[in-house]
Structure formats: C-alpha cells, structure tokens
C-alpha cells in the first residue's frame, strides 16, 4: 500500500493527518449523526481543526511534553482534542467521563497532568465534588457551555479555545518516536489503575502493520462503538483513518438501526457485541412458525457440517491441523455434496441476515476477549468474515490476528510483523515447544515503555531482553497461531489440584439460550460452581411451551425479582443442570472436573454501570466475587 509506505518514516502520530488531508482531502473522515447538530468533517477540514486546536493550546503557553488529561467519550471533538494536543507537542492520559470519579481523580493526579480537557460541566463538577485539590492550571470543556462553575482555575469552552487558535500561528514541534504519546490506564480490577506508557513509535507500529489484517479502501465506512480512548479502538481508528476510511459514531441505543442505515464495510468490536447481534437474530428465528424453525434448524445444521468439512480440506481445522491426503479428499467430497443446500440456505436465510446487518460487511474484527466457538461458527455460516485479534493495553494493543487468507478458527492468529511470541513454563520460565500450554510472552515494537512512575511494577512484567509477561496462558500451533486458554490470575484451582480455565467453559455455556451471562467460581473447592444471569425471556418462553404454571419474573419487574417467583423451583433447576451439563460436555477437551455441579442465579446483569464490567465489556471477576461473596459461600456450604 502506497499510503502505508508514506508512514514508514514518521516520528509522531500527529504527522499522519497532513498526509491524509492531501491524499483524501474531500472524503468524510469523521461523521457523528447523533450529535445535535450532526457533525461531518472531511480529511482536509479535520486537519484544519487539529491545527487550530493545537494553536489554541500553544497560545495559552502549553509546554513541550506537558501532560494533559482527556476525560471524555466518543465524538469528533474527542479526536480533535487527542490529536490536536499531540500536534501542539503534549501527551495525554485518557479515560471515559462515565468512569468512577475516584478512578478519574487517581488518573488525573497520578499522570501529573496540569491541564484537563473534559466532556462538559457536569463531568467537571463531578470531579470537583470528589476532590477540590486538583493541581491544574487550565481546564477546557469539549462542550460549548459557558463557565458557571466556581473553581479557582481558568476554564475555556471548545469554541473559545478554537477562537484563540485562529489568531495564533502554530509552532512546529519536533518529536521522536520514543517520546511519550499517551498514558492508558489499566482497568484496575486488582488494585489502582497503572498508566501504560505508549510512545508514538509503539502506536505507529500499529498504523504501519494492521494492513496485514485488514485492507480497507478510501471511503470505506467504519461504524465506531467502542470507547475511543481504549487502546483497541484507538489504534484501529488511527489505522483506518490513515487509510482514508470514514468513521461513523454510533452507540448501544442506535447500533442496530445504524447497521442498516450506514451499511458499514468494517467494524471492530468485542465478543459481547457479536453475541448481542447473534441473540437478536436467534430471537427472530424463535418467532417463526414451527415449520420455518425446523427448516432454519436443518439449514444451520447442514451448513455447520459444510464449513467443518471445508476447514479440514483447507487445513484450517484446529482439531486436525495436519489432515492426511485421504481425510482431505473425503472432506472435499462431503463439502461439495453439501454445497447446494448451503447455497439455498444462503439465498433463503443467510442473505436476509446479512441485509439486516447492513449487507456490506467485508470484515468484522473481534478483540478484547475470546470469541466463543458458536459465534465463530455462526458468522462463518452466514458468510460474514470475522477475524480475531489478540493483545493488551500494554502492547498498543495488537500482537496477533487472524487474516482472511489464514483464518484458523479457535485461535487469535499469527503474530503481526515485528512481533515475537514465546510460550514458557510459568514457574521456570523455560521455553516450551509448540503445542504445549504455558505463559505467553511478547516482544516487539508495540510493547509499552513501562508503567508510569512504577519501575518496580514494570520490572515484574518486562524483562531486560524486552519480553513482556502477558499474564495469559496459551499455546502455539505448528503454523505459529496463538491459542489463548485463559489468564493465570483467572485460573481456578480445585481442592484436588486440578487447574480449570474458566473462559472456555463459560463460552460453551453461553451457547444455551437460557443463559445470558455466567461466571465460574470454585477456588479451593471440591467442584466448580457458577453465578448465572438467566435469560428470563427465554425461560418464560420455555415454561409456557411446557404448559407449566410457574411464575418467571421479568428482568424489569423489581417486585417479583425480590420476592414472589419460581426461579428456584425444581423444574427450573433441573433445566439449568441439563443445559450446563450438555454444553460443557460438548466442548472440545472436556474433562469431568469441568462439570458445573452447583449454581445460583444473579438477577442484576453484570454491566459497566454497576462496575462489574470493563468499558470493553469484560467481566471484572474480583469485583463480582467480592460483591457476591455471601452467595458464593452459601452455595458451597449448603
């Protein structure tokens, strides 16, 4: 790609936008259809806005390498602030305005930020209500609200800053790729968040190399829903915009309608997002007539066989990485025989699903957690390419990814250019051969410089040779694909000494239509247990279909949730035991210790709002366990 070559010698992220302003001048870069008024910026307009914002900061005496805390959520103004301040010579620390105020105060103080860019007055007042000892010299609102807060710091709104910038000549700043670009703080589920120091070179490595995963074309539409400040969405946005794509902002409320309206070509998301689309489609199937449901079931079962045989023939089956010539020949004959039915199913069923999702998808990219097998299978069946990537905040984040040419389901793909993966024994740190499970170490240009002001913490995860300890467990295939099996800190050790990785079992259990969320527990116990958030709509549907006289609550019916319901009836308990046993036993590598023997229902879903999920919708296991410790103890002691 010509454009990628033009980025090879850049030293700073902010240098990208002068190139895009020339190459893609009249293409829409950022589009927010849900703001009032809606915002559309071409690449040339975006670059002008960045320069004005940077000039405004310089007119206020911003210092070279000064740290600015950016507390705001997805919008074109977030991007203008992020890249505008870097163009002015500063670096930033970032977080959502919806985050816990104590966490925001910690980030603001720990990052040594002297300037605060904040979403609006409401967020600013929230911060000052928790602490009036913020060592700031300037506050900038991303809104156009007038300053009516009584704090002893100069406050400007977005328009006022831009007016200053229009009357001040931008001074060029010289950056090295080793200079700090941003501090992204870890989720802090096991303590206070730590600031991962990502340099311009760390993130530019992503911009220069993510084309090995996805090859967008100028003008391709991208639907953006993940938090822009998060390393996954952030690096993806920088890369996709560097290729001339149009970034369209959406949100949970408008997501499904925006899929149809804007017909995106690419999208990055987390497993929970793809699960929500899958569940919505399954709900539509359940509303069909009995004969339609049987036909749909037959089509999906046939297509599952079709893709399974196709994977074997293409040597892309994780269960059989080196099939014999005879096995490949048989698989070829079988998938050819099934192709006509798969083709009919595509015309009658799958094409309609694709149209409901916009009908234009070239690529979905899943990251931020493992993708359950049933989701991988489903999207392959309906012919929407889904790729899986792997990485951490500390690795900027992408280290591995599946590609269209080498889409080995069940893995997170091969390392991207410049990246090394080593699997070692967690205790001895001795390298393990391919196929053996151990601790995943990572080395490459995208690995962070360290944790800000925490040399001791940095030394725990990054050795003198540059190897970063991911904390994940996994193994490598002969073709160097990485398979993640869990996290060391998440491993459940039963009293018999068996180590259980919860994520694959949880993913299997989520195949049950009666389970909305699930978290395994059982450390030092004789057996595995689970906290289950039931799918109450599906459970009521089942009760009605069985002509049972049971009172199953609605998720929003607080009175019934607290008191009069039949969730703990023997009939419902038996249903869930049967579902758990079926899904766990059907997963590859099943062992008897994997069986979930006891469980309890949790009627409040894990969410960002109740602090039980991260911004990228991963469970905060320690937070959940602490919150429900009484229930867990009772479960194992009854």
From TrEMBL:
Enzyme Commission number, as recorded: 6.2.1.3
Domain AMP-dependent synthetase/ligase residues, every copy: 20-452
GO MF term set: long-chain fatty acid [acyl-carrier-protein] ligase activity; long-chain fatty acid-CoA ligase activity
Pfam families xref list: AMP-binding (PF00501), AMP-binding_C_3 (PF23562)
Gene Ontology BP term (one): fatty acid elongation
Enzyme class, first EC level, given as a word: ligase
Keywords noted in UniProt: Ligase
InterPro entries referenced in this protein's UniProt entry, alphabetically: AMP-binding_CS, AMP-dep_synth/lig_dom, ANL_N_sf, Chloroplast_AMP-bd_Enzymes
Protein name (database record): AMP-forming long-chain acyl-CoA synthetase
Lineage start: Bacteria, Bacillati, Cyanobacteriota, Cyanophyceae, Oscillatoriophycideae
């Amino acid at each position: 790609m010509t454009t990628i070559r033009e980025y090879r010698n850049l030293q700073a992220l902010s240098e990208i936008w002068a190139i895009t302003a020339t190459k893609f001048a009249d293409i829409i870069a950022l589009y927010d259809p849900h703001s009032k008024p809606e915002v559309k910026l071409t690449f040339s307009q975006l670059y002008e806005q960045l320069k004005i914002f940077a000039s405004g900061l310089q007119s206020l005496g911003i210092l070279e390498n000064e740290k600015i805390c950016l507390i705001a959520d997805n919008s074109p103004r977030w991007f203008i602030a992020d890249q505008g301040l870097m163009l002015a010579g500063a670096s930033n620390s970032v977080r959502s305005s919806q985050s816990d105020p104590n966490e925001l105060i910690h980030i603001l103080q720990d990052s040594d930020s002297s300037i605060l860019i904040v979403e609006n007055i409401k967020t600013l007042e929230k911060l000052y209500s928790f602490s009036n000892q913020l060592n700031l010299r300037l506050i900038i609102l991303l809104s156009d609200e007038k300053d009516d807060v009584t704090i002893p710091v100069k406050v400007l709104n977005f328009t006022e800053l831009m007016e200053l910038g229009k009357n001040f000549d931008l001074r060029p700043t010289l950056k090295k790729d080793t200079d700090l670009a941003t501090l992204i703080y870890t989720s802090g589920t096991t303590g206070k968040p730590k600031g991962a120091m990502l340099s311009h070179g760390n993130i530019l490595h992503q911009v220069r190399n993510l084309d090995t995963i996805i090859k967008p074309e100028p003008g391709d539409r991208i639907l953006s829903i993940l938090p822009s400040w998060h390393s996954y969405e952030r690096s993806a946005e920088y890369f996709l915009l560097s290729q001339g794509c149009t970034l369209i902002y959406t949100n949970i409320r408008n997501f499904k309608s925006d899929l149809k309206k804007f017909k995106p070509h690419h999208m990055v998301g987390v497993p929970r997002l793809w699960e929500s689309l899958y569940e919505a489609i399954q709900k539509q199937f359940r509303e069909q007539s009995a004969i339609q449901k049987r036909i749909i079931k037959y089509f999906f079962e046939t297509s599952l066989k079709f893709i399974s045989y196709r994977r074997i023939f293409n040597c892309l089956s994780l269960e059989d990485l080196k099939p014999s010539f005879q096995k490949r020949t048989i698989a070829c004959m079988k998938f050819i025989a099934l192709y006509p039915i798969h083709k009919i199913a595509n015309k009658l069923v799958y094409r309609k699903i694709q149209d409901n999702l916009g009908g234009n998808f070239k690529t979905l990219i899943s990251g931020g957690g493992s993708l359950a097998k049933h989701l991988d299978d489903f999207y392959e069946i309906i012919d929407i390419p889904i790729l899986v990537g792997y990485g951490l905040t500390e690795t900027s984040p992408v280290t591995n990814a599946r590609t269209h040419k080498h889409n080995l389901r069940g893995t997170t793909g091969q390392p991207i250019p410049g990246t090394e993966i080593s699997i070692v024994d967690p205790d001895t740190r001795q390298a393990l051969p391919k196929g053996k499970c151990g601790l995943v170490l990572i080395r490459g240009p995208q690995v962070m410089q360290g944790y800000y002001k925490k040399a001791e913490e940095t030394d725990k995860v990054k050795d003198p040779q540059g190897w970063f300890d991911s904390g994940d467990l996994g193994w490598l295939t002969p073709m160097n694909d990485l398979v993640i099996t869990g996290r060391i800190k998440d491993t459940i050790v039963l009293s018999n000494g068996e180590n259980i990785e919860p994520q694959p079992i949880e993913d299997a259990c989520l195949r049950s239509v009666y389970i909305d969320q699930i978290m395994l527990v059982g450390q030092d116990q004789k057996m595995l247990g689970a906290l289950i958030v039931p799918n109450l709509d599906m459970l009521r549907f089942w009760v009605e279909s069985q002509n049972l006289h049971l009172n199953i609550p609605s998720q929003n019916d607080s009175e019934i949730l607290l008191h009069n319901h039949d969730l703990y009836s023997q009939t419902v308990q038996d249903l869930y035991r049967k579902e758990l046993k079926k899904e766990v036993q059907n997963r590859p590598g099943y062992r008897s210790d994997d069986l979930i023997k006891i469980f309890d229902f949790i009627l409040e879903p894990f969410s960002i709002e109740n602090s039980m999920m991260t911004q990228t919708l991963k469970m905060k296991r320690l937070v959940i366990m602490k919150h429900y410790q009484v229930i867990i103890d009772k479960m194992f002691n009854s």
